[in-house]
Amino acid sequence: MRRTTAVAAGAAVIAAIALIAGAISPWYEVASRFEKSRLELAKAQKSFDYFQNHFENVGKNLNKAQEAFETAQRHLKTYRGRVTVLSGQEQLELDAKTTEDAPPLTDKASA
């Protein structure tokens, strides 16, 4: 098989290359922007996953803190009653009520 080659002028070759480059350039830009968008979406997804993980951890810790608070509150109520009994505070409060209800003492010597 015989091959033939055509001789083209330099200006014609440059014009052909410019035409091809002009046709390819928009597609290259689209592909480039697509790749950039894909990378930005991957970065956003990673950031969102990080945020979601920390958000869930905060929720778990809040639940633990709420449980600890409720336990402490029950203990305080329990121990308050015990301390009151041990300190005699309950008896002091009863004594104070009875002295308020009692009539004032009068000195018989001065009357």
Could you walk me through the main structural features you see in this protein, from its secondary elements to its overall organization?
The structure is a single chain. The protein is mainly α. It is built from 2 helices and no strands. It has helices spanning 10-87, 89-101. The termini are far apart. The mean pLDDT is 81.
Biggest sheet statistics? none
Helix content: over 70%
SSE series: HH
Low-confidence sequence ranges: none
User: What shape does the CA trace take?
Assistant: rod-shaped
Structural domain tally: 1
The total count of helices amounts to 2
What is the first-to-last residue Cα distance? Answer: 152 Å
Backbone structural class: mainly alpha
- Specify Rg, calculated over alpha carbons: 46 Å
- What share of residues are in beta strands? under 5%
| Overall pLDDT level | 81
The overall strand count is 0
Provide keyphrases for this structure.
111 residues; mainly alpha; 2 helices
In a nutshell, what does this entry contain?
82% of the residues lie in helices and 0% in strands. It has 2 helices and no strands.
Strand and helix map with partners:
Blueprint: H1 10-87, H2 89-101
